[in-house]
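just leaving the lab so this will be short. what follows is a protein written twice so to speak, once as letters and once as structure tokens for the fold. can you read through it and tell me how you think this chain folds. thanks a lot i owe you, the record is right below.

___
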Amino acid sequence: MKLLRTYLRPYWGQLTIVIILQLIANAASLYLPNLNADIIDNGVAKLDQGRIWSSGGLMLVVSFVQIAAQVGAAFVGARTAMLFGRDVRADLFDRVLSFSSREVNTFGAPSLITRNTNDVQQVQMLVMMSAIMLVSAPIMMVGGVFMALQQDVNLSWIIVVMVAVLAIVIGILVSQMMPLFRTQQTRIDTLNRVLREQITGLRVIRAFVREPTEQKRFDKANVELTDTAFRVGIRMQTLFPTVGLVMNVGSVAVMWFGGMRMDTGEMQVGQLMAFLQYLMQILMSVMMSTFLFMMGPRAAVCAARIEEVLQTRSSVVPPEHPITEVKSHGDLVFDHVTFAYPGAEHPVLNDISFSVTPGTTTAIIGATGAGKSTLVGLIPRLFDPTSGAVLVDGINVRELDPDVLWARVGLVPQKSYLFSGTVASNLRYGKPDATDEELWHALRVAQAENFVKAMPQGLDSPIAQGGTNVSGGQRQRLSIARALIKRPEVYVFDDSFSALDVATDARLRAALAPETADAAVVIVAQRVSTIREADQIIVLDGGEIEGVGTHEHLLATCPTYAEIVESQFRAEEVAA
């Protein structure tokens, strides 16, 4: 597998140590039956006490060497496997962080989580077991056959028959398990997705009394995974009884036919015992190989899923020669921008052109699905336009150094998301060295000061993952405060005031005005009251600009905007 070759290359030295230790351990293991046969045939049979003590002492030394070598090989092999898993997880995480929204949506968050946890663990286990068994199994098998033939050639047919039977059985079972393992990983993805949706949407489920339906949905995913795992388990468990049966039948055959050869004087007791021990070693090596064969198909499926992510390149490509120095300040221009998703019949945005200068506010309004969030997502390069250009400070965002671009843009997303931690740790996300005074100032502007002060620990109050322990309006205000602390040159508010009441919305916009006086501000909103004072309002309809102007100008010239206003205000409010 390419994944193994790539990520195990730095650890060839450690793997070499494992191989050397396994060679020592296997050589000692193969030598022990010979010593045992010598004690039986030459010590016990001839009553030679000196031979018994000398051979017995040598057996103890060889046994200690074997134990030390096996423990050392297991330790180094396990450590190598853990380092391999660490490297793969780190690169997988870095690759996912580089994805645009397009790639994340293509794979899906549950699948990406499974690939970075369960899939990596399966491949890591294969590496560890291979380091311990992969070298040992063939050496034990070949060495065992060679040493057994030295004891008695005529019984070799028993080895051939048993190995052939095991090979056929293993081949059949492994060929059946490969597609089952692929199905199993897909169903783990499905179970993770269902569980994640149900935990995230627990309030919605309870509000619509959908617990029985969701329980059935979870049960369906759970039963499907259980059924697949059960079928895999049946085939896996079939292997061990089969190997055990063959081992026992082989032992009986050796004792039976070896006993007949002892009666004729062609074989001694020690030779028979040594042959039996070598037979067990051969079959144990087959059993170890069987274990690897069982892990191999599932690990191969997991490795393919991991490689799929690692080989996926983001549609947002960093510039080869990024621009790091920018002279102008806060200018934002959309120059004939068109955006379409791959395979879509119609573009989401079509020929969008407008500009925003420092100290001005541009509002974007339109019906649901008009392309408002997609438009503002092009500014921080969450995805790139299909054609046209987005310019920040006079430079195409495709040519700007990503860190420079992100430092100039403060985005408050449509779905406010807070990370597990504290209020302070979330606010410092955009500026790690922000002081407490800066945090309180941003909270004051965002109209969040009062409820944060009311929390038991103030800035150190805990925030749950996703901000689920605060209300929707509080999450939005904390997200706005987080953007304010960054002090960017371009503020992008993507429907960030929707959960606020009208009075809080008005106070927040009034407090924002002096804070953003020297910056370009882009606001996506559904409420006309939020944007009516904007310097420029852009009306989107079906991904195209229907009108541009002030509130009064659009009322007189843009029917689409007039309809939106009329749907939200009474006739006398419109006239006023």
Q: What stands out?
A: The two ends are 71 Å apart (CA to CA).
